[in-house]
Amino acid sequence: YCLAWHDCVAEHHHYEETEFFPAIDKAVGEKGVMENAVEQHAAFHDGLERFKNYLLEKGVNFSHVDLIAIMDSFSEPLYAHLKAEPTSILALSRYNTPQTPIDIVAMALEAGKKSVTIGFVFNVLPVFLLNMETVDFEGGMWHNVFPPFNKVVKWILTRGAPLWQRRRWRFASCTPDGKFKHLAV
Fold first, then answer.
1. If you placed Cys at 77, which of 28, 41, 43, 123 could pair as Cys (CB 3.0 to 4.6 Å)?
2. Quick check: 34 pLDDT over 70?
């Protein structure tokens, strides 16, 4: 689960930096609009890689004390990034004018399609989808809205694909329906 979490974060940032952010630059006609986010990624990247390498080296024999210490080493810059990201994305609305309409969600979906592989669907996407509390968060306004999948695709991605590594996903914080759950440990 920890390696899948690492891959989810690392692949998400790779997608942003190689596909999504360049698409934003092109749409707004400016270079480096999301440079601050790239700098934030760099601030915790080394710690994230230490986390992955430690788990690969130790396997099931890892020390929880050592793993937590590694996580603590990059927790502040990761938290700062996660806290700043919504504001950064909302700030892009200033570029959305009647003369130059910009659909950030459509751009993100288009860029995201380039990241989807079989490995991504079975080993990374469940980390994202099974930790997305949509039922109660913000009054449920995102439930059945985000991510924008039809019911069949959402069922496949939240119930079917996770069967591949079902023991791993018991650590997910939400049910396939988007409801917070207590962790099974």
1. 43
2. yes
Tokens 């509390």 belong to 133
What is the 3-class SS of the chain, one letter each residue? CHHHHHHHHHHHHHHHHHHHHHHHHHHHCCCCCCHHHHHHHHHHHHHHHHHHHHHHHHHHHCCHHHHHHHHHHHHHHHHHHHHHHHHHHHHHHHHCCCCCCCCHHHHHHHHHHCCCCHHHHHHCHHHHHCCCCCCCHHHHCCCCCCCCCCHHHHHHHHHHHHHHHCCHHHHCCECCCCCECCCCC
pLDDT over 90, % of the chain = 49
Q: In this structure, which amino acid lies at residue 169? A: W
The rounded mean pLDDT for the chain is 90
